[in-house]
Here is the input.
Amino acid sequence: MVDVAIIGVGQTPFGTHPDKGLKELFFDAFYEAVDDVQKGFDPKLIQEAYIATLETGGGQLGNMAALMMENVGIPYVAARRVENACGSSSFAFRDAYLAIKSGTLNFVLVAGVEKMNDLPRERNRLWLGVSGDNEWERLAGTNFPGIFALMANRHMYEHGTKREHLAMVAVKNHYNAARNEKAQLRFEITIEKALNAPMIAYPLTLFDCCPTTDAATTVILCRSDLAKNFTDIPIYVWGSGAATDFLAIHDREDITRLKAVELASKKAYEEAGVKPSDIDLAELHDCFTIAEIIEYEACGFAPDGKGWKLLEDGTTTIKGKLPVNTSGGLKAKGHPIGATGTGQIYEIVHQLRGDIKEKERQVRDAHIGLTVNMGGSGGTAAAHILSNERR
Amino acid sequence: MVDVAIIGVGQTPFGTHPDKGLKELFFDAFYEAVDDVQKGFDPKLIQEAYIATLETGGGQLGNMAALMMENVGIPYVAARRVENACGSSSFAFRDAYLAIKSGTLNFVLVAGVEKMNDLPRERNRLWLGVSGDNEWERLAGTNFPGIFALMANRHMYEHGTKREHLAMVAVKNHYNAARNEKAQLRFEITIEKALNAPMIAYPLTLFDCCPTTDAATTVILCRSDLAKNFTDIPIYVWGSGAATDFLAIHDREDITRLKAVELASKKAYEEAGVKPSDIDLAELHDCFTIAEIIEYEACGFAPDGKGWKLLEDGTTTIKGKLPVNTSGGLKAKGHPIGATGTGQIYEIVHQLRGDIKEKERQVRDAHIGLTVNMGGSGGTAAAHILSNERR
Here is the structure.
């Protein structure tokens, strides 16, 4: 069976880009990935592209995958858009990975691009996002902060999780983002500041919620057996898993769990042949702080209901045993929806290469990294396990 | 390498469905495909789903792939939306095909679903569709009939194609649709009627343009070596090709050609190991009649500029040597955007099995069929070659 490696990654700064459109953001991230290939890479080698975006510029740009590719000077290649809400680019990554594994393709681009700040205000903040269950949630008057607040309240009630634990996720991820020059919210906060911030949906304050972000992120995938021609430091894809769940949380078995993440990470572990304890660092989908805590449990890092312990004992800080969201996460690095999944890959690739620009947040001696990216409130999820060692 | 077979297909009637939403249309087509598997099929065998839609109910339903799967009672499977405008479901088909070829999956669902009649009028007719080049075409005031009219005028000027040839495409496809109980425009027309219909964009009259359609279409794919457990009549996927072109036709090398179709069909032929002369029948993307004529040329059925000859000599009629659009095509069967590509697969599968319900349009002794599905005005294209014989 063919194995797959990552030879280049690119990423625009996360934030507000009033001066750039989707094409320009994509262009910047594309050529950063091309230039990132250590021994050089002719972009014309790219055979197909999997491009993720949710909003397509507010529905204004159609056939966007082809449009992005012609705009970087690589027309004619087969390109398609993959969309699974906030989980779009991790599914694009999975499909590109499977395409190379099929033996049909050697070089494939995966990308995500989103300009959330160009959207109407009621849409861009995702407070009224359409990626949950519209008929039973949005049209009934709730929204993503409301939905994650329900999950948080129940988790607190059943498992003893405290508001302080939520705040600890925010403090940790802001600490990391403050050391990431491409992050959106590059400042540290304190537990007190997080707890006393304006309440959005109890128990979630402003600092429990991710910001509104523009960005593009790119990954160049290649057959493993060709990778060393392009770089001495390929990052190998050991495992990929994906799953879905009921969109409306009232249909789920347990709203204190994220079943799609459980299923996706289990499949990724199985394919990679590793256990949760083998993971050296992870980028988890912390659109709201409670999500990171539940994902600790869903990924097998903590028993059900005990995710908060990893915060109390410092396990997931940058100096801890299992650093999580060294990039700053969705919480503080930012959450450009369709570009988030490949942005997580970008972070893990640099960490595993050991070439994080800001040395203060470089994890030492990391060999295996995990990414978990969700769509909606966990209606879709994909997990990937990467390593700097060949399997 | 793993080969891929189709074991079941489903399709709602094409047309206007005011009584059904996206979920209901998808449900109907899904269970028709399940019931279509000759020896029975437990839908819980499906491991992943690739679901195509352009409009997601006017942007009202997010995370739609997961939503469709939970609604048919198969939650938790990995599902993603694939979108390439009018070519969405053929790209979904290609990605599902590659996923099985990777050796990772055994059973995959491909589907398309669209309710064009629920959209605002200026959008649902695609006259102002966003799937061409928005910045240089739509915002400059043109639209799809206008763009295809430019292509038709130039084709007439350079190659001697006549308005009567366009009308012959319409007459042929309406003839076939009149014999397809699932087609939208089930009536025959004459050359005179087509020529004298209201002018939409010279030289295209009303009968040169496809209608506005609601529908869902589904395909169940399986590893070839497992297919005989489920059916004595699997249809094998011999070849798949996909490509893109510049979205704006002023950027293209030649507006009388469809380069993405040329590239996609060439790749499909190469993978299948067949020539254009080996094809027994084809479903081509006739959103406008001129497109079918140009695709005759792009697929190698006629030399450049000579597509009209196949109409004059009757090659592509139901009784001809190479029947094209036996379903009625987009022109008369209908064009439900995201559901069109898998709808073409549906037709070829039944033709190759020899079980077309309306015997009058059953092509005899057909062994190899081609589908060509485009997005926009040819900005994206995918081609597939199917056979009732194992390769």
